[in-house]
Write a sequence for this structure.
């Protein structure tokens, strides 16, 4: 198992690559924008891709926004794109529960309002988000806390109200091996503007996994499910598609897992040094995280499109 | 590296073993009691050991009780024992910060009131326990949340008020590699009476480790630090000491790590089947978790003491 060769994408090579694909899958944060600032040239690059007849989709692990919220942000930053082009982990988790797992009963959700909205839109019954502070007088009360007998799945997404009581309830449900265990994503940190970051959903997932002695099924990248959702709704040929992302361990690895071409853009999380260091790794997973190409910014795609 | 042979401790073998040791180290929950019920015969066994001139100490990973609280419970259940005989993970964490790390500055504590009390008694300045619910309007506010510039250590113990905000603060402190990172213990579950259990400290530790991209130093068993505290205060010869516990992965492994004899008692967490299955494991750590002896209950020690 070997990944890509991590070549710079420029000149005739860039035009050749773009001619060989008809679908581009973009991660969002760190690729198209950082916080509320679009990456310079991103709008022009996306517009040129669309003019050249390429299909453009957006794949994000972030579970704190609905499809509609992403479409609104794409519009606000001049990037274009409709709700149907956005495949976020909240939306795809709802799809999974409805279409793949065909969940009967409810989901117990550690997560935020956007995840709840996507579940509601998909008709997935669930126990909603919000604070769940300490109740009762001690350990016995927490262990005996009322569990809903209709719950058949535990879903973990980003939740700023994550608490010990939520962890205890998740464990209570997951003691039943028939209870599904899903996580929107496993990112360990959520980068913010200016180099700041906060704990990511992966931290909450690890806490629940450690309590339950079980591993969650991850919906987000590097799992292939977001791509499968795009392909199911849009008839994509993986040999004519490219994944463009800023993270080796999610975007590029998912691209590899799905047989797509991959481009690392250096406006976000991962560095070129990291990508190059993985080329000679004795770890197959690390070699799978080496992209085929890299660009300093997706604006670097523009010259090849204007030629 | 090989562990013990998992022989039943009875008859002449038991008398021989007890003659070969002068110090017995007991785990508490699952060994001496379950909840508020003493294990039948435990009081008699401890009394007989003391009459035979043996020294008896109590080593517990539970960080939710102080030395004084443990001494009170030992008295209440007729088991005897003074504060100075109790080595809990809360007390030993305080010792570590004061005597080993010689902490200058404060500790940021994810933990409960007992841990705070032990830190206070040891003169370790710290930011105290209690609820820390969501504040501010969003991710930027949480990342920018006020951090105390005097904090030089993060300590994770059992905390029913564990929250995303606490996780975010811990990450904020641990970004500085000079900040110590300790955990009272890494038990994944806390067993209660009647087969119930709740998430253990290990779940909270994993969440913080995942965010910080660092591993906590564990104070509790199977780390040897609790034993080192006993030995420092009491001049113990490890070749004449035995660890008696109900968990292979903490009690027995610590005994092995410290060069002690080990006895598994079957009144608690681990089973004889589990212990036997580890004998032929190809994993050295699992083989290190095989006890030298097992008893069905520590009351089984009585006949050898009454002979």
């Amino acid at each position: 198992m070997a990944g890509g060769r991590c070549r710079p994408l420029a000149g005739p090579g860039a035009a050749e690559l773009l001619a060989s694909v008809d679908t581009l899958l973009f991660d969002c944060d760190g690729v198209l924008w950082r916080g509320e600032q679009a990456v310079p040239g991103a709008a022009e690059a996306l517009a040129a891709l669309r003019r050249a007849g390429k299909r453009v989709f957006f794949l994000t692990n972030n579970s704190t926004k609905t499809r509609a919220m992403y479409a609104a942000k794409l519009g606000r930053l001049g990037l274009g794109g409709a709700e149907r082009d956005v495949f976020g982990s909240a939306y795809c988790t709802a799809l999974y529960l409805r279409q793949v797992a065909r969940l009967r009963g409810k989901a117990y959700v550690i997560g935020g309002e956007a995840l709840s909205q996507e579940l509601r839109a998909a008709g997935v019954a669930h126990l909603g988000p919000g604070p769940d502070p300490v109740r009762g007088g001690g350990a016995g009360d927490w262990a005996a806390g009322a569990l809903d007998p209709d719950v058949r799945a535990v879903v973990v997404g980003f939740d700023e109200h994550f608490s010990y009581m939520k962890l205890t309830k998740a464990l209570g449900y997951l003691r039943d091996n028939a209870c599904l265990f899903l996580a929107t994503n496993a990112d360990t940190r959520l980068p913010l503007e200016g180099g700041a970051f906060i704990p990511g959903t992966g931290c909450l997932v690890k806490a629940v996994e450690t309590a339950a002695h079980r591993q969650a099924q991850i919906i987000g990248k590097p799992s292939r499910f977001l791509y499968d959702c795009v392909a199911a709704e849009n008839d994509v040929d993986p040999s004519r598609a490219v994944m463009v992302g800023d993270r080796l361990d999610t975007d590029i690895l998912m691209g590899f897992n799905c047989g797509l071409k991959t481009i690392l853009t250096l406006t976000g999380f991962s560095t070129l040094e990291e990508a190059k260091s993985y080329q000679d790794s004795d770890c197959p997973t690390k070699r799978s995280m080496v992209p085929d190409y890299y660009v300093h910014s997706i604006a670097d795609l523009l010259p090849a499109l204007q030629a």
Notes: The longest helix of chain B spans residues 89-100.
